[in-house]
Amino acid sequence: MSGWRYHALNLRTRTWVHRDLPLRNVSLSPAISGPYQLSATISPDWPDLLAADGLPVLREWSTLIVAEHQGVIRGGGIVTSTSVEGPALELTCTGFTAYPTAQPLVSSLTWGGTSVGTTGTGVDPAAVYRALWAHLQGLSGGNLGVAVDSTATPYRLGAWHNARRLNDDGTLGPAAEVQDPPIPIDQVPPPGYKKPVAATGKSVYWAYSLHPYDGVDVGAKLDELAKQAPLDWREEYTWADTAKSDVRLRLRLGHPRLGRRREELRFVEGENVDQLISISRDGADYANTIFARGAGEGSKQLTATVASVPADRLRRARALERGDATTAAVLRSLASEDLGTSQHLDDVTSIVIDGSHPHAPLGSFEPGDDIFVQSRHGWRRTGLWVRVLSMSFEPGANRPTVAISCSRSDSFDYAGGE
Q: How far apart are alpha carbons 242 and 245 in whole angstroms?
């Protein structure tokens, strides 16, 4: 297997099920902001497949399988399903970040309040993200041993309580009347941001809470928080020590992103790309006029319009909401940047490369990285930067073929999600 080995660990007991599984037809698929995928087959006649109790040793939601190459763990997944297909037992393993999916919140989580909430301007989504993971792992039988990065973001969640009521036109209502519902924060507080005026006899405070009676789906809430912040995330598997006695699971968080532009690498048709690169053109998001709205409300809200309408195209306008822009110059700059990307139609969403080629060998890039793609043949030559979203390959091949899912890099807005 060209230096590849596969190990199986019982996550509940942290004991090794097997240190050299005879897996075949292995496919590894890492991703950015998505769980790792590992699929493989194993012979049903393998003598170690059944435990003393007659049950399979590779058990769903119990066994973690990791792939090791040259002493380094390259990825892994929890066994989530098995099926017998002819002379092979098929294994489907999903990365540990799939664990929260569809799991309900079973106890309340709160931030701020009448004491703590009198200072600050809300809670960081990254802090809530970590608390949800801690909540799941704190339940009996739920500790996977996942360490979540301490990344921080400037975004704030919550709502102001006991604020003086606001009229529809933004003016203050009667001094003693409290705004109901509370005033939401849910933004990156701009410079000079102040909490609202308190109603008579009240103290303004912020609060944010999640409760079981709200039917919170932990997995869905984690996805929502990642989009709000925004946060990229990626799974990481490493040995706990030089003796390889255990596996460390780390959830890497990045604000506003993970990955970087890899100037030294490239995907080029006829070099490390054997197949013709498919170039797609979709005008659904095309715009040649951007109407941007910045900080402020009503007639005092900052606005800016930038346009570049070519003679051979219809005018297509799009609104850009950037409440974090507090000056006209900044807002216009953001609108101009958005206009530039909104007129690009070419995109490359998938590509297959030779993972042994020195221009971008397997292991030299990760999901989240930006790499230049160049098409030399076909009906139209194109060169553009794409962001690698996920990839899939079969380990052990002398000339590994890597199937990549991607999208043009300037289609991502790292200031406020994709």
A: 8
- Same domain, yes or no, for 207 and 125? yes
CA distance 123 to 349: 36
What confidence tens digit (pLDDT) does each residue in 67-84 have?
A: 999 999 999 999 999 998
Beta strands, E only, 49-201: 63-69, 72-85, 88-94, 109-112, 146-148, 159-161, 183-184
* Residue bearing tokens 């609202």: 196
Q: How far apart, in whole angstroms, are the C-alpha atoms of residue 394 and residue 26? A: 6
Angstrom distance (rounded) from CA 375 to CA 408:
14
In a domain, 241, yes or no: no
Range of the domain at 215: 109-234
Query: Per residue in 123-138, pLDDT tens?
Result: 999 999 999 999 999 9
pLDDT tens digits for range 244-266 = 999 999 999 999 999 999 999 99
How high is the pLDDT of residue 380?
Answer: 56
Kindly state whether residues 180 and 193 are assigned to the same domain.
yes
Structure tokens at 253: 């968080």
The Cβ of residue 33 has, within 10 Å, a number of other Cβ atoms equal to 21
Buried b (16+ CB within 10 A) or exposed e, 128-150: bbbbbbebbbeeeeeebebebbe
Asked whether residue 151 is assigned to any structural domain, the reply reads: yes
